[in-house]
Amino acid sequence: MSDRIVDEEPVTVTHTGPKGVINDWRKFKLESMDQEALPPSKRELIRQMSSPHKPRDSCVGGFNRKMSAQEYELIKEDDEKSLRKYRKQCMQEMHERLSFGPKFEGVYHLHSGEDFLEVIEKEHRLTVVVVHIYKDGVQRCEALNSCMDCLATEYPSIKFCRISAAATGAGERFPDDVLPALLVYKAGELLGNFLAVTQHFSEEFFATDVEAFLNEYGLLPEKECGPGADEDEADVE
């Protein structure tokens, strides 16, 4: 089993370079303005601004220079507010492209062997699935359950699950001396099979200990940065 797991999707960028950015900005400006509230002359001007191509019948140099002056006057009216909104939209789209796979909340409880197989075989191919196999009344299992709850909030791109050994349908394979067990899957493949996983920790352990253990095997992604950049983006020119 590889110590590190790398699985990335290519990011498709449709517009690059200064001209591409300007054309995207013009299109966004057109779509975000209240067209009905504008005079017909301004409405037509915005429509022409939104097109990255020159009209075939507008080949007179004086007309092009006049359009540039009018365009500047129109854009500067509410440019700051619209540009801030445009930046925010671009950042959101970039985040969506770079954040592969679905997001999860909390630890999912699996009730049967069928649930266990389904979460392994049908989950998104980029999603890491961590399954805790436990037994009620075993203190080490209860402690690991608490750690899983904490890690689920820190790593929303990972699907954390728990299932009792008896519910798996193969309880004989999970006697008390191998519990708690952590099984880690991705795209249906078993990446980690950690029986009696708490033997690697001290008697009293915490979520940070489990996190460090999984990181040793390269099974956790980078933590996601929370929101907070929106307030600062207006300062970026």
TrEMBL record:
Transmembrane spans: none
Top-level taxonomic group: Eukaryota
Keywords: Phosphoprotein, Sensory transduction, Vision
Region (Disordered) location: 38-60
GO biological process, one term: regulation of G protein-coupled receptor signaling pathway
GO CC, one annotated term: photoreceptor outer segment
Domain Phosducin: 13-224
The keyword Lipid biosynthesis belongs to this UniProt entry's keyword annotation: no
Keyword Phosphoprotein: yes
Classification via SUPFAM superfamilies: Thioredoxin-like (SSF52833)
InterPro entries xrefs: Phosducin, Phosducin-like_reg, Phosducin_N_dom_sf, Phosducin_thioredoxin-like_dom, Thioredoxin-like_sf
Family: Belongs to the phosducin family.
Name by which UniProt lists this protein: Phosducin b
Protein species of origin: Cyprinus carpio carpio
